[in-house]
Amino acid sequence: MLKQQPNRSIALGARFWLDLSDAELLAQCEVDCYRASGPGGQKRNKTSSAVRLRHGPTSLIVTAVESRSQHENKARAVRRLREAIAMTQRNPVRPGDPPPEFFLSALSRDPGLRVNRKNPDYYHVVQHVLDMFCACAGSTADTARSLGISAGHLIRFLRNDDTLWEHANRLRQEFGRSTLR
Predict the structure, then answer these.
(1) Which of 36, 73, 118, 161 has the fewest CB atoms within 10 Å, counting from its CB?
(2) Model-level pTM?
(3) pLDDT-based confidence at 51, cuts 50/70/90?
């Protein structure tokens, strides 16, 4: 079964991994549990509660060590993996392509593209925005036009998440553009 999933992902693009359930995504990972160092008392030093995920298809590695509970750390690590996939894995898109259903749904709820991080489609929207950002060579005006939103709404969406903001600025630098302020 695992051998079929990477082939499906190539056909469907990088969005495939975000479409997987937590259990399916976790099944594609090598999971390491270890003892975290640092404050937390004797219990933290005796239990292997820290979690490291290595996602085989993308080679992404994420960790979670905050909680003394291995289950909580595993859930945090899966969320971080979704974020890392959305930030780093691109889908082929072109300006003028029709937007995916989840993006249209987000726009219908709020034309200003205010999407809560707890929304299940949040990382899908982030990935689509960055896909279009790359397709438009880092131009905020062209990206906003292609997404059907204003440049101000795009900037606010990017700025609302520090990691997304930093990643968008790195992409702009790769395209020889100045950083957003």
Answers:
(1) 118
(2) 0.86
(3) very high
